[in-house]
Write a structure and sequence with these properties.
single chain; Helix Hairpins; flat
Length: 151
Amino acid sequence: MVSSALPRAFLPSSQRLLSSLAGSTSTQTSSILRHKLGQLPANSLSDEVKKAMSLDNASRSERVKFQTMSAIKEFERQPGDTGSTPVQIAALTVKIDSLASHCAINKKDHHNKRALTSLITRRRKLMQYLERKDFDSYAEVIKKLGLKALK
């Protein structure tokens, strides 16, 4: 905990950041730090800080969130688009890949196997809808995500 007699505005930025995170848990802290440090210019961070805050050291859920955000950015039609069919298919594909790797390791985790099948079903239905409505974007989604075409 950072304690200082100086007002908060006079503290260095790193101490202000640490004092603002005082009441949060460790996973919340790391997520907030990654977000805040991602907004800083790249040359203002030392190599040690960059290495410590890289996605290699992130938790599995943080990596999935990052992958989902990047997939959404790739398929969005306009900024903030999270509901269009290609975006939903891309987000589901990231979740499916993560859950499939988990289920491959944990063979007896039947709860997540059931969740995996429901996600696959949801993605298949969205793909069928997209194929019916807009075949060109369906073909583009299939190609970018590396999925098999529906029968």
